[in-house]
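Request: Not sure, any thoughts?
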Amino acid sequence: SSGINAEYGDLDQQLLNKEDKPQQLLDLKLLLVLFCQTLGGYELNVSKLYRLLINLYQKYCDSLQSQWKRKFKEVFGKDNYSPLTVDSDLQLQQLMGCAYHVLDKADIAKFPVNLPFSKLVPDIFTLMEEYIEASLQFATHLDLSQTEVDDLVRKSTNELLTKTLNSCLIELIKERKLVLSQIVQISINTSYLQRYSHCMETFVSSKTGCTVTSTQAKDLYGLKMFDNVKEEAKRQIHVKLTEKIDEFFELSRYNWTTTEVREYPSDYMTDML
């Protein structure tokens, strides 16, 4: 036991300093868990090895979040930023996943239906579900209670929302190539992501089997992050509108010194309005 503890510090630093992909860290976790279980069978103290595994979990989640950042950007690149058309209730269930149960069915009288948000919204929820399942793969069998596992997964999911997804959405909104209508759609999408985000709490609970309080739920979803994104969208909408108005004035060649009184506005002013 003392030999294991003596080697722990060096092993901890070596493993945490390595640059590994999520699957490699998951494979390493499996080997270490088997090692701990074997030593535990001989009544040796392996508590520090389990602490090492918990430290590795954070490294695993950091690696996952880097991977999910690329996935979020892929979703952004493929989206057409137009309202989503759904042909049937079955298609809606398949698209929305866990968020299907929190949809306002009163807004869906009959199919086909045009939803206010674009396909980006269900795609983000799908990625969130996949992330929670991936993080849970590592969080199990670490000699932790059900509540402790739930806390680990919630903390990791919260980091994905408030750091990774937040930065990706802010970067997207600030892209110069986006036109006004696309930024407006992103703002609408963000509102619906925020509106339906509490479905993630139900999803986490269904996976960990641990019921949480509403206070914990607020901490998970990082609702302030969505407010920040919407505020940035408003700023960018203002910028685009100002640029558009300036373009109209430049094109109109408006005669500011005319002596004639016109009873109707110019075509340029009508178009601008």
The mean pLDDT is 84.
